[in-house]
Amino acid sequence: MQMLGRAGWSHCRSTSLLLCPSRAMVGRAPLAHPHSASALQAVPGRRHHHHRPRRRSPSPPAPKPWSPPQPPPPPTPDLIGYTVTCAETGEALGSVHSLHPGQGQPMLTVRGVTGASAAASRLLPHGTPVEHLVPWVPSIVARVDHAGRVLRLDLPPGLRELGERGALLATLGAQLAPYAAPRAGTPAARLGRGAMPTRAALVAAGRADLAHLVRLAGGQLEVAAALGLAACRRPAGYWDCADNMQRELAAFVAAHWTRFEEPGEAEVGEERWGVGRGDGGGEGARGMGGGDDPRPPPGTPDPAALPPQPSKAGYWYNQVTGRVSREAPELPTLIALADDGSEVLAEPREDVVMPSRGHLLAAGRYDLHYAVTMHGGYRAVGAAL
């Protein structure tokens, strides 16, 4: 700010001061000042300088909020029969056979045959029927051509091999059946469950090719678990899971059901009256006055004249639980809960009994005995059951 005056303070006629604002204040409204100057004024004759306003760089556009990809329209029954092809190679995968709502998203069942370029063609004959489960999601369903009745898919890695593995296991199950008979007296034989043949047994039977297919399908344990066959060995960490131990205990108890036959009515009558006995100790023989006469007392019907008796009645006895049943016992079964592979073991309440240490060791189940001791002992496992 500058003070204006002709010859200093002595020539000023008033106490008012004219202050020259700085260049930055030119053109702005006067501001009140605490001193005696009444206002801020521009000096006449001075050149006013105006500052150009700064140009602000244009701000970048706001990013659009992320939105998930729009799912394809829900499948309709009209899609049944559509040809399913690979969007990348154009190879036909099969045709839509059925639709399933599913838990999270709909599923398509696609049925076809193995092609020449399929990953499992070296394991399965060309043209083997296969079945694929395809989720109806935007990352897989690339395009739906209703005019040409074609469904193009972006196949994720492993989807084709998963369907062909199911066909491979079905083929192995049919070819392994003659060699999967369990040994007599084993729990698998009592439960009517097949046993997985070893590689040495297959090679000795002249089926080295079948042993090679088993190895390519995942090995002895994988194939046995997929086909429901009893395996000789358990995978590493098998006994760490309490559910596996519970299933093995249930199978052990169920394998100890034994059927016994009761004598028929004719045998009961013969034993009661001494028919066919040479000791003469029957009551009728004593009543006739002689102990050496093996004939039945008077009035006893001739067994040869009687109508044919029904077959002997039988009953079932469990050597672990001590339970007796007139009907065939109900064996434990696995019930699937959902599509994710979860299962629950269903067995009669009367058969949920903890076997004793003597039962397991007498049967040679040292592996099951080790699992019980690893999980806390017989008392702790029995309380958990």
TrEMBL record:
Composition bias type Basic residues, residue spans: 45-57
Composition skew (Pro residues), residue ranges: 58-77, 296-310
Name under which the protein is recorded: Ribosome maturation factor RimM PRC barrel domain-containing protein
InterPro entries for the chain: PRC_RimM
Domain Ribosome maturation factor RimM PRC barrel: 78-159
Biased composition (Gly residues): 275-291
Name of a matching Pfam family: PRC_RimM
Segments passing through the bilayer: none
Source organism per UniProt: Auxenochlorella protothecoides (Green microalga)
Protein origin, superkingdom: Eukaryota
Region annotated Disordered, chain positions: 39-79, 263-312
